[in-house]
Amino acid sequence: MQHVTLNNGVEMPILGFGVYQIPPEETERAVSEALAAGYRLLDTAAAYGNEEAVGRAVRSSGIPREDLFVTTKLWVQDAPAQENARRAFETSLAKLGLDHVDLYLMHQPYGDVYGQWRAMEDLNREGLAKAIGVANFYPDRLIDLILNNEITPAVNQIETHPFFQRAADQDLMRERGVQIQSWGGFAEGKNNLFTDPLLSGIGAEHGKSVAQVVLRWLVQRGVVAIPKSVRAERMAENIDVFDFELTGDQMAAITTLDTGSSLFFDHRDPAMVDWLGKRRVDA
Asked: Does the annotation count 48 as an active-site position?
């Protein structure tokens, strides 16, 4: 497994296992199978409703805690955000049954972002969150957060896949010391990703699936990826991407698939801001 080094020296696997949209009753089994397949980065969130199941799988795995990298996320908090963010973190930590997380992300760029971030800075200083970062921050919001706070986010987890490649965003993050992480790396199959002729052709040249080509493309770009699956054979396939390399011409060809826009929703759309900003997670 390859790793990236975050801006505070913490090492993070470049490929992990995400549990978004896995029902709680299926999550423990899925995470246990992912760990058995070799994954060591696990990505969950308070909003996913499956932190407890992730924690059970971690504790029953027998894998030393120091060999695992566990991420969870803070949902939008009401005022006083700084106090509520700490309570939300303590709830997540209790559900996971851990004494710390390796990465704690602000899930959405809404609400009292500064109050939430200052609480996260405190958690980082106390060693309860080894690294802290954000998710779904566009460059303007990310730069503003960096300029007005003490700790620069270690990670920004954003929609990144062949149809929305975020190359300029990645360049800006690299300049500021922020690691890009992909969510939706397979675009949830939109635009017929798994049968795309270009990706299929590249896969055929290497004896690999389209999913493996996409993950290899992300890895070669230095993008941390967290593919999700509930099938053990697919988990094994997704992690098997370190024995081949895409050529420069193949990497360049994949850039032609970029549409430059989200296939899901725009975090700057007023209707989406209204929906996400008002949603609350029951702690």
From this structure: yes
